[in-house]
Design a protein that fits this description.
The chain is mostly helical. The protein has 14 helices and two strands. Strands 1-2 form a two-stranded antiparallel sheet. Residues 119-139 are annotated as: Disordered. One of its GO terms (biological process) is interstrand cross-link repair. Residues 125-139 have a biased composition (Basic and acidic residues).
């Protein structure tokens, strides 16, 4: 156990380095190792959160560390998000070490992790770390919300970045995130609307085609798949998606036959 305590004591240093100019000298192997440590700390959180004495010992060792004495046991559970956000915001990190696809993967995984396995109620046993008490549970939830807000602000802070994010990720991942983060669902639907409005109907082929083949946009098949995924999500997301499509169809002339409005055809498919 002493070895684990010694490892946990390094978390503040890991977060401090990830925010510093030292990352300028990181190579891909160093970055991989840092991300692996973050996942390991999150694993420790899941493993020990239901064991009050060990949880208290880990929290006490974290609070003893510098330069972030306010870190407690719940920080272990948010480590992938905290590290990912620090790296995304650190301009000293060479872009080649965290190219867009990988950066987007870090963000998507961090956001998904905040919504997975965090629904359990706090244990009845209290401890000095406070992470299992009702107040500690609320504090942890508030911390998760703050971290998610920072990640979403980074993602939505640039239309070009958000568009590239949505092109990069599988539609099922995007539907999951849109179903759990209301801040994402509307911008995502607006982005899909923009892509759909640029499709043209080719009567010779009998299908919708891209208006510009070399632009980074979606084909008809890809657009349809994304709307289908959204409609297979939570009830609220499904209702929001169908309402958006129905409004677009009405604005486009409220056609009821194929080939006249991309929104009519999408509604028939989903």
């Amino acid at each position: 156990m002493e070895a684990v305590l010694g490892q946990v004591e390094q978390l503040p240093a890991l977060l401090a380095v990830s925010r510093s100019a030292l990352v300028r000298d990181w190579d891909s192997l160093t970055l991989d190792r840092a991300l692996e440590w973050a996942r390991y700390f999150q694993h420790l959180y899941d493993r020990f959160r239901a064991r009050p004495q060990l949880r208290e010992a880990l929290g006490r060792r974290l609070r003893r560390s510098q330069p972030y004495p306010v870190l407690g046991f719940p920080a272990l559970g948010r480590c992938p998000q905290l590290l990912g956000l620090a790296l995304l915001e650190n301009r000293a990190l060479p872009p080649a070490q965290l190219p867009q696809p990988r950066a987007f993967g870090v963000v998507a995984a961090a956001l998904a992790l905040l919504k997975q396995g965090r629904g359990a109620q706090p244990a009845a046993d209290g401890d000095r770390d406070g992470s299992s008490s009702p107040d500690g549970y609320r504090e942890r939830a508030a911390g998760d919300g703050c971290t998610a807000g920072l990640l979403l602000s980074w993602l939505l802070g640039s239309q070009e970045r958000f568009s590239a994010f949505c092109l990069c990720l599988p539609c099922s991942h995007l539907a999951f995130l849109a179903g759990h983060y209301s801040q994402l669902s509307r911008p995502y639907l607006e982005l899909l609307t923009g892509w759909g409005s640029r499709l043209l109907y080719d009567p010779l082929q009998g299908r919708w085609v891209k208006s510009c083949l070399d632009k980074a946009e979606l084909s008809w098949e890809e657009l349809r798949e994304r709307f289908v995924c959204l409609c297979q999500g939570p009830a609220l997301l499904k209702e929001q998606t169908q309402a958006a499509l129905e409004l677009l169809r009405t604005q486009d002339g409220d056609f009821k036959v194929c080939g006249l409005s991309v929104w009519t055809d999408l509604l028939m498919e989903v």
